[in-house]
Amino acid sequence: MKVIFALDKFIEKITSVTIIAAVFAMLLLSVLNIVMRWFGSSYLWIDPLVRHLVFASAFLGGVLATGKGTHIGIEILPKILETKEGQEKKLMAIKAFIALVSSAVLIWLVKASYDFVLTELQYGKEAFLGIHSGFLVMIIPIGFGIIAIRFILQFFKIIAHPTK
After folding, report:
1. How many domains does the chain divide into?
2. Which three-class secondary structure string do you get for 112-124?
């Protein structure tokens, strides 16, 4: 059980640092591009890089939200059961079921997005700085995969400690 909590904490820290770095890079590059345009110059690769950083930040935010339980979820049944006394076991069962189903859906999304990456690698082209577009869209299966891992970890946490 300690391994699950340690892995979850590790994912949380890495994701937090990465999203901070991505947001800082987006801000810095956007300001740099604006200032350069004042002087009639710019780097063509900055705008597509910032777009991909925004895309990556969205997935990183999803990873963080999943870990904190603030993601969009099925909330009606847990809210009903929270108000009734003695319904903790049912509430935990519902939360475990939601985590398990979410994990299954995300695993399917990882597979579908991996197929998309393979197609992009085959038919895509260079996006910027010599980077193939297939490598840039790899954030999709990676993001879905990490979110799936967080849901799986949530499931095991609920099973191990059903009262928390």
Report:
1. 1
2. HHHHHHHHHHHHC
Q: How far apart are the first and last CA of the chain?
A: 14
* Radius of gyration of the chain from its Cα atoms, rounded to whole angstroms: 20
- Residue 73 tokens read as 């979820």
Q: Which domain holds residue 132?
A: 2-160
Residue pLDDT, tens place only, 54-108: 999 999 999 999 888 766 665 666 666 666 666 777 778 888 898 999 999 999 9
- Please give the distance of CA 14 from its chain centroid, rounded to a whole number: 12
Place of tokens 């475990």: 96
Tokens coding 4? 């699950």
Task: Give pTM, 2 decimals.
Answer: 0.86
Question: How many Å apart are CA 44 and CA 7, to the nearest integer?
Answer: 39
* CB 80, CB 28: distance < 8 Å: no
Rounded CA separation 9/20 (Å): 17
What distance in Å separates the CA atoms of residue 110 and residue 145, rounded to the nearest whole number?
6
The two tokens of residue 112 are: 């579908």
